[in-house]
Amino acid sequence: MSMWGRTLQFLPKQNQREGLLPWVIGVMLFLCALSLTSALALGRGLERWSAGLTSNLSVQIVVDDPMVRKAQTEDALRLLRATPGVAEASVMADADVIALLSPWLGEIPTDTGLPLPTLIEVKLTAPDAVNIKGLGERLMATASGARLDDHQAWMTQILNLAAVVRLLLAGIVVMVVLCTVAIVIFGCRAGLATHRESIEIMHLMGAEDRTISQAFDERYLAHGLKGGLFGVLMAGLTLYILIRLADDMGQGLIQASLPAASSLAWLALLPVLSGVVTMLTARITVRRALLDLM
Predict the structure, then answer these.
(1) For residue 267, what are the contacts with CB-CB under 8 A and spacing of at least 6?
(2) I need a surface site. Which of 109, 140, 199, 239 has the fewest CB within 10 A?
(3) Is the entire prediction scored with pTM above 0.70?
């Protein structure tokens, strides 16, 4: 215990160069927490969102003559409802069709007389319950104006883009961790250089390398915990604000890709991990440097 007290004497309680280290670690952990949370939430959101799309199909009846379009719609509905694996098939109201077209055509009155395609919503019992290609061929044979849309073409593009984004976010996490380790290594070496004479005197007094490195362990553990707590608090606050802002944006991909507020509890573990990483990095760096001094 007395030796532990002596090791603390060569590390002052306040050090201007080390004073910024917790804040730098906090910024790094802030970026790491945002990237990691975004990657995990994006994956879960896409799974929920794509699961709903793969269990739903759309059938368009594109015919100019209203009477022919109505007849083909009825034929398509009979075929769909008789197909095994189809749980429900219903015609979408004109008002809902206009709402889908409004982002491209603007506000359209329901009585404008604009020819609208008939849209049939199809719900499947399971994503792979129906042979999509075979169903599309049967629909065209029954109703020549029918077009089956299984959302696969553009959904595949979105999923590929999301995979690239998640890979980039994972790369950011790795780079942030490596930068944090590099910053700690630099700080440890600077501290060793500053207190080189004190360390040599302690060696002459019989202090072991393990005893000397314990002072750095404690110092950098505190830096990691302090910086980690700051980074996590800022990341949690940022994510909370984003979640609140997304509440009014509907049930689209943006909201589905944001984490739920109740799922952010795991962020509390990051300060502990930050402290452990900084402590272990400091321990390895200091002990290797002390071996070179011998």
Answers:
(1) 33, 37, 232, 235, 236
(2) 109
(3) no
